[in-house]
Design goal:
Length: 338
Amino acid sequence: MLNERRLQVLRAIVQDYVGTEEPVGSKALTERHNLGVSPATVRNDMAALEDEGFIAQPHTSAGRIPTDKGYRLFVDKLAGVKPMTGPERRAIQNFLDGAVDLDDVVARTVRLLAQLTRQVAVVQYPSLTRSTVRHVELLSLAPARVMLVLITDTGRVEQRMVDCPAPFGEASLADLRARLNSRVAGRRFTDVPRLVEDLPEGFDLEDRGTVATVLSTLLETLVEENEERLMIGGTANLTRFAHDFPLTIRPVLEALEEQVVLLKLLGEAGDSGMTVRIGHENAYEGLNSTSVVSVGYGSGGEAVAKLGVVGPTRMDYPGTMGAVRAVARYVGQILAES
């Protein structure tokens, strides 16, 4: 285990390297930080940190830079999450409050995260498998044509046209709407098939075919929309950090185009805690020079999806973690109120 002074030296190296982009030397550390020891002692501490793999010498200069292991220790032990200022919090709230629907919420969240962190922002749409039904609306468009509107607790709206096998009157449609909502409103999407399977039996024989057709469309909608969706923004921010990537940013850009890779990076949506994956902790080789900071968001304290940022390992971790957490909290509030 590192002693307290060496932890302080590591913290100072990470802070200086993130801020200046230059390898950090012992003389600069003693001048910029109140470490209370001589440059010679700091040099000894740096040698010990290097021996244990927390810092490395990128070339023959006197300076050192943090390794993935060094950043990991910094995040786990040394970095508090930087709180957002009052004006920053109000700016987040004002920006997100103007959203008109779920697509707009996600688009604004991506833009906001990319601007706040100056990294690549990734936002996962709320998953239907973790959502509940708020309401099912049925609207008559013609004697044998119905529009089915499915509204989720996260504000997601799905519309489908249903061509019925026979004309279906307004009274029958109102009856079906009422019975359907009494069974599925407030229930998990995964429970819906079981909850509606015997519903046609409660209707007159001539209406059962139409009821079965409407239910079939509803269940197909759940299956169709089961695939995860993402929105990504701020990719151009990577060009500002081109020198942070050993050879080229191309592998990073290619990885960001792979939705499956991004979903794995964000982690399981049901896990609402903050996750920080640094460098080689990312299983995808093209992202070994990046870090990913992600957190779950949702209404009622349960995560329905993840959001986060991807950037170089030389990242302002406290500030990035604070921004990601604050934005996730506001998005959750909007979903709860929508």
